[in-house]
Amino acid sequence: DAKTTQPTSMDCAEGRAANLPCNHSTISGNEYVYWYRQIHSQGPQYIIHGLKNNETNEMASLIITEDRKSSTLILPHATLRDTAVYYCIVTNDYKLSFGAGTTVTVRA
Amino acid sequence: GAVVSQHPSWVICKSGTSVKIECRSLDFQATTMFWYRQFPKQSLMLMATSNEGSKATYEQGVEKDKFLINHASLTLSTLTVTSAHPEDSSFYICSARPFSNRYEQYFGPGTRLTVT
Questions:
Q1: What are the distances in angstroms from CA B112 to CA A66, A74, B56?
Q2: Which residues of chain B does A9 touch, with a Cβ-Cβ cutoff of 8 Å?
Q3: B33-52 as b/e: b if 16+ CB within 10 A
Q4: pLDDT tens for each residue of A23-37
Q5: Chain A residues whose beta carbon lies within 8 Å of the beta carbon of residue B114
Q6: For A75-89, how does the pLDDT look when each residue is reduced to its tens digit (9 = 90+)?
C-alpha cells in the first residue's frame, strides 16, 4: 500500500471548515483513499473514501487532486465533538494500515 | 446501522490467565473481521484477519498460539489472549467488513486489557 503523509496536528475554530491534507504521491491506480477518525479511547470511525472523484457524505467531503497524489478531507462546520485523530489511509484491499494521523483540536 | 460491539469493554486479569474478547456485528453480516492492538500514544496495529469458518491470518510478529482467534459465525469473532503477561496490556479493537459492502469497515469500541 502507498504511504501517506499528514501533518502531526492542527487546530481549527468551532463552526469553521476544517481542511485536512494528506499526501500520497506513490498511490497506484487501483488504490482507494480512506479517511477514519479516532476519538480518544474509542474505536476508529469510518468517514469517507474515494478512488478519483470527489466524494461527499453527511460527515465530510473528500477532494482528490487530478493526479491523485494528494487529497483533502473537509469537515464543513467543525464542532467540539470533531476533536480526534484523523487517519488518511491508501489501500487496494481490505487491510488498513494506520499511520500517526493528524490530531485535530477544535477550539470554541 | 453498521454497529459493532465488543465485550467486555475493559478487563483486568492476573498474569498467566487467559482472557476472551468478543466482537459482534449487530446489524449486518461480516465477511471478514479484523483484530487490532493499540498501545498508549501509538497508532493501531493490525494483528490478524479472520474469515468465517476458516483459520485466521496473522500479521508478522503476532504469535498465533498466544492470540487465538475464532470466527464461528458471520456476526461473531473472538480473540483469546492466552497466558497473559503485563506486556499484553493494551487496547484491543475489532472491526468488521460488511458482506454487502466490501469497501467499508466498521470498528468496535475497543476492549481495555490490563494484566497485573
A1: 42, 31, 22
A2: none
A3: bbbbbbeeeebbbbbbbbbb
A4: 999 999 899 999 999
A5: none
A6: 999 999 999 999 999
